[in-house]
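Review box. Two proteins, two foldings.
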Amino acid sequence: MRRAWSRLGLHGRIALSIVAVVLAGIGLAILAVRREVGEVIGAVLLGGAIGLAAALIAGRLLEEAYSRQRQFVSDASHELRTPLTAIRGQLEVLARSGSADPAEVGRVADLALAETARIERLIEDLLTLARIDEEAPLRHEEIDLRSLLAQLAEDPSLGGVATGALPDGTLDADPERLTQVVRNLLVNARRHAGPNGQVEISARAAGERVTVTIDDDGPGIPPAERERVFDRFQRSDASRERAGGGSGLGLAIARSIVELHGGRIWVADSPLGGARVAFELDGFEPQAGSA
């Protein structure tokens, strides 16, 4: 129930609460037109009770929505402040020392550039989440799934991703957002597997449903954390995530996009020894003649 409410978003929850109050009023009006005094009194009491309950629910939903919004803003502010503090601290040290050593100046410049890139990634992720929360419409196309997954696996920035079985066929989905889901999961897997670790992507189809899996041989994700890793700014290992440039939003974005498509996403143990993150979508059409 709580997950269903959370998926509605702030505007959806407010609208649903208003609808509940309106329906209560309509029910009261219908009952009130009856001539019997007892039924009118009963209608008033029932309508009042329903209206009060709806108002209480609306108030609680608004309070919860604003609380989540405040927490999100607080988390985002902290994530933005951290790299800015690092940049400022290094610049102040350099200024106080008065060092003209090119090596020291270069070190500070490299750190500033890395932290600036981190800020840019965080802002991009925040904008993506904002667009998803506003329920921007999906741009559905017929996507060659094998080609898309194979192309992403060949991205040199991911340090080599193996491909398992990939089905032939097309998937009805938003290509840009589906690409972002897979890329986020591959980046997450590579970060935890390490530069020399194993990462593998595969997929299997069953009728119109396809499941895409990303495996790694990293430390894995404990069962108690497997749901929480999809929360915004949640990290299973904060120090490693921060060191690797992660914002804690990659898996949250992936889940939001998958659910926007009507699918689901989850974490399990990987046969490689680490974590498996898989997502499932409908709308797959196998290629004619394929097994």
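Next protein.
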Amino acid sequence: MIVAVDTNCILPGQVGGIENYTLGLIEALKIPQSPAKNLILLTRPENHSLFAGFADERTEVVLLERPRQSWDELKKRDPADGKKALTEFQRLKEDALRRRAVDLVHFPGNTINPLNLDIPVVLNLHDLQHRHFPQYFSEEEIAIREKWWVMSGRRADALIAGSNFIRNDLCGQLGVDQSKIFVTPDVFQAAFLHRPTSEQLADLRRRYELPKTFFIYPAAAWPHKNHQRLIEAFKSAAIEDSQLILTGAAHSQSAGSENIRFLGRVSTEDLVGLYCVATALVFPSQYESWSIPIMEAMACGCPVASSNVTSLPEQVGAAGLIFDPTDISAMARVMRVLAGSKFLRQTLAKRGWDRVREFSPQNSIQTISRAYEFAQTAHFGKKAA
């Protein structure tokens, strides 16, 4: 099977979760068990360098030129020119797929473009957060999601959901037939399975001036990520000689304090190291379809404490501590308990590793393969009808 992955939704550093998922997905599609005999990666000028390294004898990376603005921005500025630009880009994409005899296109980032693509389509519709937390979105953002995400969800021949929580939400909110939704955890990059050497970890501690006790939370500064409550909880916990390390997009390196530090985006190598030496990952998000950072942390042997909402209890199971993300006192207690018990941290690290093994790329690719087969059957069945 020749599979194309459309990465046009990715703007490096701006959509961290989908970017990390797409990188993990591509790695999974290149393992021997993959249904993709050949892989086509459709890229844009802004993200081409992010994916160019995947090129090999069975993976072609194709650059499609497109405007830097979103299609909605273009059409708002000049409806006729915006429509013309979108039509031309769609034509270029369809031509690239047709010339390479692509059997199926996988859209990993919530929308399908063009919607009328005459090829089997699989879509990751990661969440419907705007329907649960509309206060975190502008009216324009909600309108775009309601238009493009909903139409894409209904157009897809098969959908991949990161959790049962999201599958049930798609069925209940959009009326999507459950039979075309395939649940498999979001795959993470293999780099998190390789522990750095003791020398590399010592160098990391020196470079970042890390104390013995610190908690890490890697997340972009979106409202639902709940940073402010976490900061208040850390202050309330008052753990001596400890730090809270926050990484991710939109965090300023100069915005922190002596024991609350905003590092911004860090390299994958450094994030692996931070997980390996952290006291724990504390993950207070109010909404997640599936958390790649929790999987990354568990893979690195980092104990996990997580919110008890949406998909997170399903993901964490008995491998981590959970708390109410609106309860600052409960969050502070969890941090004090983790800082004070090496035995607990070791127990959670072992359980986390066992949990990660359940969600290996080899297991995920089996479900992805079934989604691809279903999409092909559904697509050609509709055409025959």
